[in-house]
Design goal:
This protein has about 300 residues and is mainly alpha-helical. The chain has one domain. The protein has twelve helices and two strands. The chain has a two-stranded antiparallel sheet with strand order 1-2.
Amino acid sequence: MKHTVKITIALALFFFLAQLAGLVIVSQYIDHKKTIETQAVVLKDLPYGLERPQVQNQSTSFIYIAMAILIGTLFLLFIIKTNITFLWKAIFFFSVTLTLSIAFAAFINPVIAGLLALAISFWRLYRPNPIVHNISEIFIYGGLAAFMVNIFNLFAAFMLLILISAYDYIAVYRTKHMVKLAEFQSKSKVFAGLFIPYQREKIMDNSFKGTGHKKNTPKKMPKGSVAVLGGGDIGFTLIFAGVVMKGLMLHEAFFSAFLKTLIIPVFATFALLFLLIRGQHDKFYPAMPILSLGCFIGYLIVWLL
């Protein structure tokens, strides 16, 4: 098992809560009445005058996202190489503030939402705290999905998961730059994703050989460990589920479409649990291939219902 049972359950629970909260946030930005009347997905405006990205053809939108990820990765590797940590922190601060503001504004006054997001971003940056960090992560990806789901149709969402899964596998097992990115974020204490530090028991064998000496009993000593799950693993699976949900809402009632869509996060969470249980401690694994498989199985169940 990659982590302790307690931490494994906590990581899976936070992942599922992020998916659940994300779908609620996305649904808040869909005008259900107009969507049913026009038989086309009608989205409500984003706060602060923000405009969603527009594409000519939704079926090819995954290509633009893949290019953006590649450029972003190269830029972050440049930051690591030059050790310009403050630049990464500035980008992180802006991204967290923006996505949290969009997420909170789905439920409360946009001004209050913005101030709350700003306060949390400052807290995460200057007073890192696992509780604040992981609770805010539950909402961040809902804000991101509300901003992005409009550019995808179902085909593009499938292709995005397939492409990202292949990229994740190569980045962890071949080029290994994903490991460098995770280590850099952990070291800078600015991690995009779930981050749970904990103590893991380590066997310390103090025995030695010598005449007249007995072998000491091995002792259990605490060893600092950390459980992480990258933000992309949460965000891409949520975008897929959000695209499925907006399609269902074209011909089903809101609550029915929402409940059916939840099947996808459930299977994705089971897929994550499988990876964590089968994984070994202190080894990095690409999560997207197994999470994507969970999403695809979940969608198959939704399609059969």
